[in-house]
Amino acid sequence: MDLAKDLEKELEATAQEVLGKLRSGELFQSNWDTAAFIIFLIFLGTVLLLLLLVCLHCCCHSCCSRRASRPRKVSPGQEHRRGVDNLALEP
Fold this sequence. Notes:
The chain has a domain at 30-62. The chain is 58% helix and 0% strand. The protein contains 2 helices and no strands. The protein has helices spanning 2-24, 31-60. The longest helix is centred in the middle third of the chain and has 30 residues, at 31-60. The chain is elongated and about 80 Å long.
């Protein structure tokens, strides 16, 4: 029971401290605090942008596919290979 009261008092003190800083308009104590917050916002924005791009890629991959609608014809003796042969490795 005593632990719950201590936690409640600590949370109330933290809330009062945050509200006091909001009222005074001094959220950051130094230029380093401001710079760290800006870097955090840039990081968060980058992560959100990447998530948006991943969602767009997954959702629009089937409708925006740039591949040909019909498959290429493969000669009877050839396998379906990708890439380029490295002729320098030939004996």
